[in-house]
Design a protein that fits this description.
Elements: H1 3-23, E1 26-40, E2 45-56, E3 61-75, E4 78-90, E5 97-113, E6 116-131, E7 137-152, E8 159-172, E9 180-192, E10 197-209, E11 218-229
Parallel strand pairs: 1-11
Antiparallel strand pairs: 1-2, 2-3, 3-4, 4-5, 5-6, 6-7, 7-8, 8-9, 9-10, 10-11
């Protein structure tokens, strides 16, 4: 893609990100730390996952994440993925939350402009949530669609910028989940040190609401550090 094309995409996503921040009325600051190891089984199959820690700074809400997953490279332009996530949220003001989240997804790589590939990521999540104080169970479904790209700055792709937007649709889970129906904008920088290790620093702006009838009036500023091992970020 030409430099003007990169600038247009960057400007579009930046304006969208600014629109999210100006839309929301309340805001919180969060920090996410993620480690994402990848293990190649064969040419078409990969085992990967992530282990993470998240905190809402103002309310001191801590979340621990473990999400083993698999990816099958079905076609050069199509990946099939699935996994299961485990989330434990410690809330000093309310009861803690425990969630088991199986998921299935497809990632489409299209179109491609030279070194730049556009990604469409579709994911369906089956969410099983419990409040640990009363162990009230509340199942839910969530559909996610993520669009964007990682844009390399050099031929070797060792330095890049990431630009993504993501929308969520929720079905059920109103009794337990506290924040839902999120829209996100992602902007980050990444460094690939060698064939094994990569690091990405990312800012995520997230707009959410409590129910389908509410406005997106809660704004989250998320600062995320991601460490990749053994996997190719593209």
């Amino acid at each position: 893609m030409s430099k003007p094309g990169v600038v247009k995409i960057s400007c579009f996503l930046s304006v969208w990100l600014f629109g999210l921040s100006s839309w929301a009325q309340e805001s919180t600051n969060r920090i996410w730390l993620d480690f994402k190891p990848h293990f190649k089984v064969n040419e078409n199959l990969e085992y990967f996952g992530d282990a993470g820690y998240r905190i809402i700074l103002s309310e001191q809400i801590h979340t621990f994440v473990l999400r083993p997953s698999v990816r099958y490279y079905f076609k050069p332009w199509l990946d099939l993925m699935g996994g299961i996530g485990f989330f434990y949220e410690i809330d000093p003001n309310l009861s803690n939350l425990f969630e088991i989240r199986p998921w299935q997804g497809v990632r489409v790589h299209w179109p491609t402009f030279g070194r730049i590939g556009i990604k469409h990521y579709f994911r369906l999540e089956e969410r099983f949530l419990w409040e640990t104080e009363s162990w009230i169970f509340d199942p839910a479904l969530r559909f996610r669609y993520k669009l964007g790209s990682r844009i390399p700055f050099n031929e070797s792709r060792t330095i890049y910028v990431s630009l993504f937007v993501e929308a969520f649709a929720n079905f059920g889970g109103e009794d337990v989940e506290r924040f839902r129906n999120r829209m996100r904008g992602y902007f980050g920088f990444g460094w690939r040190f060698d064939d094994t290790w990569s690091v990405e620093i990312e800012y995520i702006h997230q707009a959410s609401r409590s129910t389908d009838a509410d406005e997106f009036d809660v704004s989250d500023n998320i600062f995320r550090l991601r460490v990749f091992k053994g996997g190719w970020v593209w």
